[in-house]
Each structure stands twice: as structure tokens, then as C-alpha cells.
Amino acid sequence: MIVMIYIILGFFLGSIPFGLFVGKIWLGTDVRQQGSGNIGMTNVMRIGGKGPGVLTFVLDFLKGWLAVFLAASALNPEETQTQYTIIFLSAVAFSAVCGHIFSIFLHFKGGKGVSTLFGSLAALYFEIALICAIIWVLMFLLKKISSLSALTMLIIMPWLFLLMPWIKEVPFSGYQFIIMIALSGLMIYKH
Question: What is the pLDDT of residues 33-46, one digit of tens each?
């Protein structure tokens, strides 16, 4: 039962359309009506500049981080790296990103989920979030295309979970790997 509560909470937190709020409050506009029509950082930055874009990134990052952090806080500290908890926290991360992509507040439409993914990964495995951020930044510096940077990172991201037993001495979870492949596939499809 507790698993479902945190998965639902993750989806609810992920559904909060911070990019829309930043657009309306800071810019006085509905970001869905301009640029790409997306509620994420890239479109908000395209419409309003770095300040609103960075704020959107931070808020979307924090909702992903908070979802996984709250779920992890509910666990027994001695069981934080069991197969069960690894799968549970990965499902909450998946749920938070799905909430951003299919926001209940926007008739199941939303953003692409990259900022929320970064936040979820940072709470799940900071090392993977850092590697993904480096991949995204390097690709962006090379090509100057945010979506290409995200797609490159999304192709590589699930495979990084295969390295976790050596990076952080946690057990490999085939189920976690499948969850991350599914999440990556969904996000690639949404791009």
C-alpha cells in the first residue's frame, strides 16, 4: 500500500506545471501558446530568457528530487539498497517523470520530462545524474541543440545503471534496468 501512495504522490508532484506558472507569473504569458508550446525549461527560456528558464529547470528538478527523496525517507535506513527498495524508488522516479509528461493539471499533456528526470536521478543515484548532466552539457556545447542533447543522454542513461554495482556497490537490479529502459524510451518518444 505504501508503494502505491508514493507512486501516486510522485505522479502528483511531477504533474505540477511549474513552467506554465513561471510563464504566467514572470512573463505574463501562457508558454503553451508560444515557441514549441512546451511547458519545460527550453521553451520557457526561448520565450523569456535565462532567468525564467533557469527557475523552471530548478523547480522541475526539485519536484523529481522531492518525489524520490520522500519515498526514500519512508524506508527503513537499513534496507535502502535491497532489490525491493531499488525497484520501489525507480518506480517513484518513473512516476514523477510521467507526471511531468502527462500532467493531470493540463489534461494529461505536459513537458518532455528532462529536468524532472535529472532531479529524480539525483535523489536515486547522484553519480548517474552527474554523468547524464555531463553528457547533456557536452552534447549541447558541440551541437547547440537541446533536444539532441537530451536524446543523446536518454540513449545512454539506462545503460549507466549496469555500472552501479561497481560505482556505488549496490546490487544490480534487472527490474530497475527495465524501468529505466522504459522511461528512456517514453522520453525519446516524447521528443
Answer: 999 999 999 999 99
**Where are any strands of DSSP class E within 43-177?**
none
**Element spanning 147, H or E:** helix 146-160
The structural domain count of the chain equals 1
> How many Cβ atoms from other residues are within 10 Å of residue 107's Cβ?
8
Grade residue 80 by pLDDT with cuts at 50, 70 and 90: low
Whether the predicted model's global pTM rises above the 0.90 cut: yes
pLDDT band at 2 (very low <50, low <70, confident <90, very high): confident
Length of the chain, please? 191
Residues 6+ apart with CB under 8 A from 64: 13, 14, 93, 96, 97, 100, 115, 116, 117, 118, 119, 120, 121, 122, 123
Residue range of the domain that includes 88 = 2-190
